[in-house]
Amino acid sequence: MMEELEQGLLMQPWAWLQLAENSLLAKASITKHGYALLISDLQQVWHEQVDTLEVSQRAKELNKRLTAPPAAFLHHLDEVLRPLFKDSAHQDAAHPSKATFSCDRGEEVLILRVRSELSGLPFNWHFHCLPASSLLVSQHLICPLMGVSLALHSHVRELAALLRMKDLEIQAYQESGAVLSRGRLKTEPFEENSFLEQFMVEVCN
């Protein structure tokens, strides 16, 4: 079951978690068997993964008046977190949430606190996230970012080659006597080296 959570987390995109104190990047995978959560401030990455036994024990500690199977708590946490990972332009209308969130950070732990209601009663939850392993950071941040970076550079070079061919095509038309009917459409020849140098400067900054 833990493999299911790990695979589910890999499939989830990162989203901005907007809190009153700050903004964090987060992703979560929640099933009836447990949940996995990753949170990052772009300087450090925190992680928590728990099963139904841990969910049941923590729910009893934090919500003494509530009695429900772990699957019910997990379903509620999924409903509470889901709006946070939606586009902020649509989340309030499509997925209204009365839950409130706060975050405490120490050197070795990040605690995301959630206050909401379940079956008309107050429901509290604390996500206890510890520093993520180097493997998780590589899987969820470094490898995807490197893949996107390589793909972007490849596309840029393809576009540069296309523009270079367009310039040669225009030059051939001009040499055969073609004249541009609207002068305002005239463009300067594409300078590939200058473009690539400027692109690298902007990416690095």
The CATH superfamily of the largest domain is known as: DNA double-strand break repair and VJ recombination XRCC4, N-terminal
CATH architecture of the largest domain: Beta Complex
Number of strands: 7
Helix content bin: 40-55%
The number of distinct helices, counting runs of at least 4 residues, comes to: 6
Q: What is the number of independent domains?
A: 2
CATH class of the largest domain: Mainly Beta
Question: What's the short version?
Answer:
The chain folds into two domains: 2-132, Dna Repair Protein Xrcc4, Chain: A, domain 1, CATH 2.170.210; 138-204.
What does this structure look like?
The chain has 205 residues and is α+β, with helices and mostly antiparallel strands. The protein has two domains: 131 residues, Dna Repair Protein Xrcc4, Chain: A, domain 1 (Beta Complex), CATH 2.170.210; 67 residues. The protein is built from six helices and seven strands, in the order H-E-E-E-E-H-H-H-E-E-E-H-H. A seven-stranded antiparallel sheet has the order 1-2-3-4-7-6-5. A hairpin with a 4-residue loop joins strand 1 and strand 2. The chain is elongated. About 5% of the residues have low confidence.
